[in-house]
Amino acid sequence: MNKATFLSLAFAALTGGLFAQEKPAATPTPQWRPVYHFTPPTNWTNDPNGLIFLNGQFNLYYQHNPFENKWGHMSWGHATSKDLVTWKHLPVAIPEVVGKDTTTWIYSGSAVLDKNNTSGFGKNGKAPIVAIFTADQPKQKKESQFIAYSNDGGLSYKQYAHNPVIDLNMKDFRDPNVFWHEPTKQWIMTVAMVDEHMVRIYGSKNLKKWTKLSDFGPAGYTKNGWECPSLVPLVVDNNPAKIKWVLFVSSGGDHGPLMQYYVGDFNGTTFKNDNPADKVLTVDYGDAFYAAIPWRDAPQNKKILLGWLQNGKQETNPWKGQMSIPHDLSVKTTSEGLRLKQSPSTIVSGSLAKYAKGTLSKTNLTLENTLQLSPPGHFDGNSNWIDAVIKLNGAKKVGFTVAEKKGTAKKVLVGYDVEKQILYVDCTGAESANKSTENQIQTAPMKAVNGEIKIQVLIDKSSLEVFGNDGEKVISTMIYPDKDATGLSAFSEGKSAIKTLKVWDLNRR
After folding, report:
1. pTM of the full predicted structure?
2. How many CB atoms lie within 10 A of CB 483?
3. Of 47, 114, 172, 426, which residue is the catalytic one?
4. Active site includes 167?
5. What is the radius of gyration, based on Cα positions, of the chain?
6. In the chain, where does the domain assigned CATH 2.60.120.560 lie?
7. Domain 356-505 has CATH 3.40.50.10800
């Protein structure tokens, strides 16, 4: 991904054009280091890359600067996990290539297990892992698609001797995402034609020679360039016999990052969008979620989306950038048509009891005004997970207050506005220094169901992710509370009732 282009377009309003000139913070910021989200031990990270499940482990490659806590020297960092919570950090898997006349940065892409050794890269009867990525050559102002292969389980990669495998002599042409399409017995690649607002689809029998199959776009949001496309088959209404294809595309939004999606059908050659070309469907309504791609091969045939959560204006040290909570994906039939459903992965939520210091469980609580949820010594470290079902009754607003500093107005509200029918995150009391005016309040349209709403609030030191009505809507953002701003409570304007409430205290580090 060409972050210089993206930052200049997408973050101009957010950062005042100064993002590229930021310097690493001199002071460590452990109070903002996430507990149950991925961060590298040190230095910069952005897009997740090469997501592949292998030998019982989730492999995460990621855009990484091995030398500095700022964007540059793009390489593929590497980590593995068995439960998507605890990560083993490994050496850089694909480093930048510095030559006499050409420097090649390793931009975003994907990785596949070539089970049948279609590429011929395998040795001794073992299937190789093949990485497909964008090679950016800054001096030549050129992006093309390279491949590299691994015969040691993905720990290290050797560049293909005849790279590039696709070269259109373009400045902005990036982020290949590859999968095997069984009905047509070929590898499929989606790659971004950035300024054309198109996704180009290629096919290959061997991962080396690629043939153009079709183009999709322009469609949906086209004010800024397109990046990080991925095309994924998803189950509809929990019925494995019914499948729809969803195409994800990232682009710089009006006030920060935007991810959009399209629902339709894929026949091995073309993707057909079910909705009108001007329809914009939003993956996340916050100001931080971007460049997400899926694990396609997770256990139980799950498709699990992982995104980059962007810092915005605030510096962290000795790392910068983190990944989102992994999202389980499906498609749901709604009154508006087929829509994406995404919820915190059950692989993660199933591990909460293992990692939690303590839990709070309540049922049938009458809620009026404020209910304190963080007694001294409990749930007071800004690393918590809340699941709640709330009966709205006569309330105007209901929700939770997080990262509250006692005796001050500093707090973040996560709530539901009954009259406006919106899920919202209100940071006006705490994040004015870190967010533009337009991003102080972030909202997503959402209707109550039988007078109730379901809400999940995931706060993890500096990240805040909110899932409404079983993943019907999602708002992800970054916050930077003071060290002593750790209050946690429920609120209601008017009388409501918490039907069920469970809070996990995950402040274990």
Report:
1. 0.94
2. 12
3. 47
4. no
5. 22
6. 356-505
7. no
